[in-house]
Amino acid sequence: MHAKAVVPRAALAGAVGGVVAWLFALVFAEPLIQAAIDYEGERGEAEAALDAAAGIAPPEEGPEIFSRTVQGVWGIGVGMIVAGVALGLLFAVVYTLLQGKVSVRPRVLALLVAGAGFLTFYATPFVKYPANPPAVGHDETIGDRSGLFLVMVVGSIVFLVAAVFVVRALRERLGLWNAVLVGGVAYIVLSGILMAVLPSLGELAANVATYGPADSETPQPLRDPAGTIVFPGFDPDLLYSFRVYAITAQAIVWGLLGLVFGALAERATGSASVETRESVQA
Amino acid sequence: MTTAGATARARATATTAVGDMPYLIGSLVVGLLLFYFIGFDEGAATSLFGNTTVVHEFVHDARHFLGFPCH
């Protein structure tokens, strides 16, 4: 299949995944996101009350550019669909480059590439730096967090490419099954080393200075100077549900990208071979 | 696998790759740009559009839900 035919089909398949992930998000994610924003607001009030008691001026609020409705209905829709298209375009590059080199039918290759995308762009980075709802994550570390997340994404991609080369090198000697097992172990070990080397978010210097040592940026209970809890920590069940839904949404995007593109590609290559046969006969 | 077959396949792959290049590069660049705008632009208070937060605020919920760093 020519790249000219692959790219629009992959973009369309990614958009389909994005639309379904958007609908999923409206039902499952938005109530949790709103609950997290409410927590953030109430916690802010509790902090302001503590600050006022200690004679500290409260921090200034940033201006609200978009209403919660715009963000929670349309913003998340545009975000999910554009993300789906972006991932579809990157998928198209890998699919085009691989299709001549492997002897599997298009829909199988499509699912393999989509699975690799899910693994490297999301699942592996998630193990180290999981998705967080609003209220979890400090403003002052967003630059560090962006950089660290990107390192995990790029690292995962590099490691999977390395693992594929390992499989290719060992296939003749070990057989495909065992070569893939060795490649999989190589991927896990390399990813594990990277995760061990990178700092957890709680270990960032800015966080240790402000909040003391911690594993993550999840808000802990708020205490007054006497040590009494005046506001609870972030709801762990909310955090768990948000992350499960976040993983599900990614599985929807990548899964539909692979399945829809696979179906489109089989139809395109099927009709192409029919055309070739007809032109040969004519 | 005969040498002739391998050569023919290599030639076919090579010619396809040459015709594919503009589409592959375009797809890669646009894909990475969109990925950047959804996930990272205005994240660390920097933007290709200058010092604004419009993109960040509009896709705020998606950024959280897609697992990108946000606040």
Q: Please state roughly what percent of the residues of chain A sit in beta strands, choosing from under 5%, 5-15%, 15-25%, 25-35%, 35-45% or over 45%.
A: under 5%
Oligomer: heterodimer
Name the shape of chain A in a single word. globular
Strand and helix order of chain B: HHH
Using only C-alpha atoms, the radius of gyration of chain B works out to: 21 Å
For the secondary structure, the number of strands of chain A is 2
Distance from N terminus to C terminus of chain B (CA atoms, Å) equals: 57 Å
Strand composition percent of chain B: under 5%
Give the biggest beta sheet of chain B: none
The amount of helix of chain B comes to 55-70%
DSSP E strands of chain B, number: 0
How many separate domains make up the residues of chain B? 1
The radius of gyration computed from the alpha-carbon positions of chain A, rounded to a whole number of angstroms, is 24 Å
Give the uncertain stretches of chain A in residue-range form: none
The overall number of domains of chain A is 2
Give the structural class of chain A. mainly alpha
What's the end-to-end separation of chain A, in Å? 23 Å
Protein model, in words:
The complex is a heterodimer of chains A (282) and B (71). Chain A is mainly alpha-helical. Chain A has two domains: 3-136 and 226-281, no CATH class; 140-217, no CATH class. Chain A is built from seven helices and two strands, in the order ααααααββα. In chain A, helix 1 runs antiparallel to helix 7. The two termini of chain A are 23 Å apart. The mean pLDDT of chain A is 92. With 71 residues, chain B is mainly α. In chain B, 68% of the residues lie in helices and 0% in strands. Chain B is built from three helices and no strands. Chain B has helices at 3-39, 54-58, 60-65. Chain B is elongated, with a radius of gyration of 21 Å. The chains are: A mainly alpha (282), B mainly alpha (71). Chains A and B meet through helix 1, helix 2, helix 3, helix 4 and helix 7 of A and helix 1, helix 2 and helix 3 of B. Chain B: The chain crosses the membrane at residues 21-39. Chain B: It comes from Actinomycetospora termitidis. Chain B: Keywords: Membrane, Transmembrane, Transmembrane helix. Chain B: This is CbtB domain-containing protein. Chain A: The chain crosses the membrane at residues 73-96, 108-127, 147-167, 174-198, 244-265.
